[in-house]
Design goal:
This protein is of the alpha/beta class. It is about 50% helix and about 10% strand. It has helices spanning about 10-20, 40-50, 75-85, 95-105, 115-125, 140-160, 165-175, 185-200, 220-235, 255-265, 270-275, 290-295, 295-305, 310-315, 325-335, 340-345, 375-385, 390-405, 405-410, 415-430, 430-435, 480-490, 490-505, and strands spanning about 1-5, 5, 30-35, 55-60, 205-210, 250-255, 285, 360, 370, 450-455, 455-465, 470-480. Strand 10 (about 450-455) and strand 11 form a beta hairpin. Helix 3 (about 75-85) runs parallel beside helix 8 (about 185-200) and helix 20 (about 415-430) runs parallel beside helix 23 (about 490-505). The chain is elongated.
Length: about 500
C-alpha cells in the first residue's frame, strides 16, 4: 500500500490480533515482542491513533534519554510522562489539582525538586523534540503550562512565610500515614491525578496505557531497573494495579534480546521465565507482520528509480515472470528476518544509479560487462539495500542457517530455486566456462555443457545467453536426480554467498 511518497504495510490483521489481546481484562501488563526493525513502534503508533476514543496512550522512548549508568531512570520516566501529557494530550494546569503537590514539594525542598524545576532540569536529558513543525510536537501547550505554573510557585513562596503552614504540613503528613505509600511523592501524585483528569476512572470506555518502547535497546542496568520498579510496586501493594494508575503497561522489546541480556547479566543457569512472567499476565504478544511485508515486495521494487537503466534492469531482474530474481531474494530475506521493514522503507521511492563496468573474475579469461550478468546487478542492488557487503554477507549467512532449519519447506519450490541458483553459478563457475558457449537462441537453447561441485555431487549445467539482446548469461542447471535437485534447492543461498565472495575477491564492489 502506498500513500503519496510513503510506503505502508497493511496492518488490519495485526490490529485485530492485538486489539483482542489488549482488550482482555486480564492483560494489565503486556510484553509486546518483535524483532528489531519489524515496525513495532510504527504499529503501536497507528493502533492508538485509530483508537483515541478507547485509549489514552502515553508513549515513552527511554532510548532517547541522555543518562549514565548511575542516574535514576525512573525520575526521567516520571517527567517524561508529564511532558507527554502536556505535549500530546494537552494537559492544562488547574490550581486545585496541583497546588497541594507543588506546595508541599516546595516545603520539602531539601529532598524534592519542585515540578517546575524537575521539568526544566530533565528536558535536555529526555531529548524531547519541541520544534513545532508538522513532524514535531507543538511547543505551545508546554509554554502555556509553564506560564500557569510560575505564579503558583510565587504563591507558594509567600505561603512558606505563613505561621500556620507548619501545622498544615503536619496534617498532610498524618493523612499520608493513614495509607501505605511506596516511592510516592508529589510528582507521582500529580501524574496520577492528571491521568484521572484526562481519563476519569469512572469512564470505563477509555483506558490509560503506558508504553515503554525499545526497552531492549537501553543500558541493561536500566532495563532491569525499570522491570524491578514495576515489580516492587506490585509486591508492596499486593495488587494487580499498575504504577500511576495506568490500566495497561506495555513493554516493547524483542524478548529474545531480553533473554540474552538477562543470561549475560545473571548467568545462563538463572531462571529467566520465573523472572519475566511477572511482567505479563497471560502470554507474550508476538508481533509478526512478515507475511504482510513480503506480500508488498513488488511495490518496493517498482518504486525504485533506475534512471536511464530503468527498463533494462527491470527486464534483467524480472519481477513479474517465473524467474522473479530480485523479488525472490527480497522475500526470502524478509522471511528469515535478515531484512526488516525499517530498511525496506529507507529504499522506497529512492534513486539508484547503475554504473556500467567490466567484471574481471580471478581465474577467468578476460572480462565481461556487468550488464551481461544479471546476478552481478542483483548483488550490487542487494549491497545497496543492505548498506554494504559485510551486512549482505551476514544476512546471507543468517538466511542459510534459517533455510537449513526448514528443509522440508524448502523443497516446495525446488524448481524455482534451481532456476535462481543458475543466475549465480554464472559467477561462481566463471573460471570454468569463461563465459563461452557454442550457440544461443531466443528460447535459451543449450550451449556448452559444464559441471560444478556441490554437496559431493557433480552438477551439470548449460551456459546460455538470453534476454532481449541475447547477451545475458545464465547457467541452466540440469539435475540428474531428485537428490541433486534437493542439494541445489537447499544450497541456493550458499551459492549466492559464494557469488558475492567471488565478486568481492575480484574487487568488483570497490570500483
Amino acid at each position: 500500500m502506498t500513500t503519496g511518497d510513503r510506503f505502508e504495510v497493511p496492518l488490519d490483521n495485526q490490529m485485530s490480533l492485538f486489539k483482542r489481546h489488549i482488550d482482555d481484562n486480564l492483560n494489565e501488563r503486556i510484553i509486546f515482542s518483535g524483532i528489531f526493525g519489524i515496525g513495532k513502534s510504527y504499529f503501536l503508533e497507528k493502533f492508538f491513533e485509530k483508537n483515541t476514543d478507547k485509549y489514552l496512550a502515553v508513549n515513552l522512548a527511554p532510548i532517547n534519554y541522555s543518562i549514565s549508568n548511575n542516574d535514576d531512570i525512573f525520575r526521567l520516566i516520571k517527567y517524561d510522562i508529564i511532558y507527554e501529557l502536556i505535549l500530546t494530550h494537552k494537559l492544562e494546569l488547574e490550581q486545585e489539582v496541583i497546588s497541594r503537590h507543588i506546595a508541599y514539594g516546595t516545603v520539602f525542598s531539601n529532598k524534592a525538586h519542585s515540578l517546575l524545576e524537575g521539568l526544566l532540569s530533565t528536558a535536555p536529558l529526555l531529548n524531547k523534540a519541541l520544534g513545532g513543525s508538522n513532524e514535531l510536537p507543538d511547543p505551545a501547550p508546554l509554554v502555556n503550562f509553564l506560564k500557569k505554573i510560575t505564579p503558583e510557585i510565587e504563591k507558594i513562596e509567600k505561603q512558606r512565610k505563613d505561621p500556620n503552614l507548619h501545622e498544615r504540613v503536619l496534617e498532610f503528613i498524618r493523612d499520608l500515614e493513614k495509607t501505605p505509600v511506596f516511592e510516592s511523592d508529589f510528582v507521582t501524585g500529580f501524574i496520577t491525578e492528571s491521568l484521572d483528569k484526562l481519563a476519569p476512572p469512572d469512564n470505563q470506555k477509555k483506558k490509560k496505557v503506558l508504553i515503554i518502547d525499545d526497552l531492549d535497546r537501553i543500558d541493561p542496568e536500566h532495563i532491569f531497573r525499570l522491570f524491578n520498579i514495576f515489580s516492587s510496586h506490585l509486591s508492596y501493594k499486593r495488587s494487580a494495579g499498575n504504577k500511576f494508575g495506568f490500566d495497561k503497561v506495555i513493554f516493547v522489546c524483542d524478548i529474545e534480546n531480553i533473554r540474552n541480556i538477562f543470561s549475560a547479566r545473571y548467568g545462563a543457569s538463572v531462571d529467566f521465565s520465573g523472572y519475566i512472567d511477572k511482567f505479563y499476565n497471560t502470554e507474550i504478544f508476538h508481533f509478526d507482520n512478515i507475511e504482510e511485508v513480503a506480500a508488498v515486495t513488488s511495490q518496493i521494487i517498482e518504486s525504485i528509480n533506475f534512471g536511464k537503466h530503468n527498463l533494462f534492469i527491470r527486464e534483467s531482474l524480472s519481477t513479474e515472470n517465473e524467474l522473479g530474481l530480485l523479488g525472490f531474494l527480497l522475500k526470502h530475506f524478509i522471511y528469515s528476518g535478515s531484512l526488516n521493514l525499517r530498511r525496506l522503507k529507507s529504499i522506497y521511492n529512492r534513486d539508484y544509479t547503475f554504473t556500467e563496468k567490466y567484471i574481471v573474475i580471478k581465474g577467468a579469461k578476460g572480462s565481461i560487462p556487468n550488464w551481461n550478468v544479471p546476478a552481478a546487478i542483483a548483488l550490487e542492488l542487494l549491497v545497496w539495500i543492505f548498506g554494504d557487503t559485510s551486512s549482505l554477507e551476514k544476512a546471507l549467512t543468517k538466511i542459510t542457517l534459517y533455510e537449513n532449519s526448514r528443509e522440508q519447506e524448502a523443497l516446495r519450490d525446488t524448481r524455482k530455486r534451481i532456476r535462481i541458483a543458475g543466475y549465480f553459478v554464472t559467477i561462481t563457475d566463471a573460471p570454468i566456462h569463461n563465459f563461452e558457449n557454442k550457440m544461443s537462441n531466443g528460447n535459451g537453447s543449450s550451449g556448452s555443457e559444464y559441471e560444478f561441485k556441490l554437496g559431493g555431487k557433480n552438477i551439470s549445467y548449460d551456459l546460455i545467453r538470453w534476454g532481449r539482446r541475447r547477451d545475458e548469461y545464465y547457467a541452466e542447471i540440469k539435475p540428474k536426480s531428485d537428490i541433486e535437485s534437493s542439494i541445489i534447492s537447499n544450497n541456493v543461498f550458499k551459492i549466492i554467498n559464494d557469488a558475492l565472495k567471488t565478486l568481492q575477491a575480484s574487487a568488483y564492489f570497490g570500483r
